[in-house]
């Protein structure tokens, strides 16, 4: 799992250093880090249906791992945007967030992920209690929807890829509504 999560980073750095990211490398890097964040966020949502279908309880730890991977790739995405794209010009960044709805929605997706990452430990589950922790972590559903909208609205022409991501996310969310776990005895 670590290789899956980390491998894209050195590949992206190598592409950047070797000038293989095209005419606008910052934009390409920004998009690719965002894609990885959304991929891992959707992958984390896939764990529950996979566990319910297969009975593989060991996947629970992988869900947390994938969620944290999504968060760290989202930090990378946001870092490229704030550092390389805007050079820490907070005034212009604020204007950009308020001016473009797709950026506002993307920022919302990121902000919703912060408490999830901060409370992803077993100690947090114990401290908050299972019910409150689960309620807080249902923010992931809003975050993935916002992430898909961000991607869809950010694309200028071909929306095929954002629609694929959104379709997969919607199927995974629908699974949770349709398939209720059997009652415990």
TrEMBL record:
Its cofactor is heme b; FMN. One of its GO terms (biological process) is protein repair. It is a multi-pass membrane protein. It is found in: Cell membrane; Membrane. It comes from the Bacteria. The chain crosses the membrane at residues 33-53, 65-88, 100-118, 139-156, 162-179. Pfam families: Ferric_reduct. Its main location: membrane. GO terms for cellular component: plasma membrane. Binds 1 heme b (iron(II)-protoporphyrin IX) group per subunit. Binds 1 FMN per subunit. Residues 33-148 form the Ferric oxidoreductase domain. Part of the MsrPQ system that repairs oxidized cell envelope proteins containing methionine sulfoxide residues (Met-O), using respiratory chain electrons. Thus protects these proteins from oxidative-stress damage caused by reactive species of oxygen and chlorine. MsrPQ is essential for the maintenance of envelope integrity under bleach stress, rescuing a wide series of structurally unrelated cell envelope proteins from methionine oxidation. MsrQ provides electrons for reduction to the reductase catalytic subunit MsrP, using the quinone pool of the respiratory chain. This is Protein-methionine-sulfoxide reductase heme-binding subunit MsrQ.
